[in-house]
Amino acid sequence: xxxxxxxxxxxxxxxxxxxxAERASEAPDVLACxxxxxxxxxxxxxxxxLREERPDVVVNCAGxxxxxxxxxxxIDALVVNGSGVRALALGCEEIxxxxxxxxxxxxxxxxxRTPYPEDAPTRPINAYGRGKLAGEAVVLGLLPRTxxxxxxxxxxxxxxRNFVQTMIALERxxxxxxxxxxxxxxxxxxxxxxxxxxxxARSDAPPGVYHGTSGGQTxxxxxxxxxxxxxxxxxxxxxxxxxxAFPSPTARPAYSVLGHGRWAVAGMRPLRHWREALHDAWxxxxxxxx
Length: 290
Prior knowledge:
Blueprint: E1 3-7, H1 12-22, E2 29-33, H2 43-53, E3 57-60, H3 67-72, H4 74-95, E4 98-104, H5 127-142, E5 147-152, E6 155-156, H6 163-173, E7 177-180, E8 184-185, E9 188-189, H7 190-202, E10 208-211, E11 218-219, H8 220-230, E12 238-241, H9 262-265, H10 274-286
Parallel strand pairs: 1-2, 1-3, 3-4, 4-5, 5-10, 6-9, 7-12
Antiparallel strand pairs: 8-11
């Protein structure tokens, strides 16, 4: 990999990918594109930029990520997460670039009780998931030999709003905190995922779908208690509640645990356990924006 283009480079995951690439021993030429340089709402501009810059790998971290807003602006979200991704895939096809596209656990309905394998039937239950699934179909359809879909979820890291940093802030400002205990998933550190994306980009792994989430599983409540423990605070200050305590316009999957079987095909290990990753990420989180 000689030339890497990262979309959504000003976001939490995109920023982590850029930072990881730049500190690699054999760092590629990195073009970090925020929305000011590459806006998925304007397909012609997307394809023109790819023609001009001619990266050999594109990591697409851009997208409409406002889940609740997607419910009332589904067409707008689909323009970004579907049509915009199509322009990116067509541009990559034109110049022969490999595309790593970030997707979501929200393509599943959350009714499973065992981890979803990469080839499990998809059934999104909200507008955000439908839009992201459309983006997946575009990448896999247009780039059967050079397209990779990496599903992730419950992301946290420095440089962006996320659940872990919200809990850090609430521990400082409230005596007790109510946290949902009936949604289960895999907290995933952007640092771990960024490193894995770059390893995938450099590998001879077959194209297709991979699940980029940490190992193990937990609930938001259990994750919040772990955050309080790391802060040296009493975890009993975190109290479990059901999702009904926080009404939302968006239906969210109750079970978002993903299986990682396909990494073996690529000759790679799945990401490590979420608790180990959180402990390693901790210094960057307590010093970052809250």
